[in-house]
Amino acid sequence: MNQLTVFKLISFLLVPVALLFGLMSIIVFMMALSANPALLLMAFAMACFVMYVFASLYFLMFSINNQRPCKSSLKDWIKVNAYGSLFISVLFLMNASAVFFINDINLRQIISEMMEQQPAISGKITLDVFIKMFRVVAGLMFIISALTITHILMNFKLLKRYDYLFSK
Questions:
Q1: Which residues does the chain have with pLDDT short of 50?
Q2: How many CB atoms are closer than 10 A to CB 59?
Q3: Do residues 17 and 52 lie in contact, with contact meaning Cβ atoms separated by under 8 Å?
Q4: Fewest CB within 10 angstroms: 33, 60, 117, 154, which?
């Protein structure tokens, strides 16, 4: 399979994730402003991911596919937001990997402590269901992170290959 075809496929797979992350980043940003300023870093990292996905999609659809020149600032937008996306992807990848490698006894203990801190959740969801949901979310985040890291690496190669499309 051609590298450009794989890049297109991953790009279109990341669009719904970027839309979800966009909504989540707005919510996290509002939470950070009202209660916890430490969440600002996560809100901006998720916003970087959203901007990266749509900037690289624009580069793919309008520059690579149509061979149209684009502004050199698009290349800068892609690169800067790729680094932020790489940060959040590596973070999610490490967290998902930790969930896979932790044994069930420790995971049960950690999740039960989390559920005790959230009294609204503990009465509605059993521990076993919550553990299954936790593992499914970790699996999805692992896949999304791996796809994002692959996409970023491929995008850097494509930026070099199609450098002539950026006006100086």
A1: none
A2: 23
A3: no
A4: 117
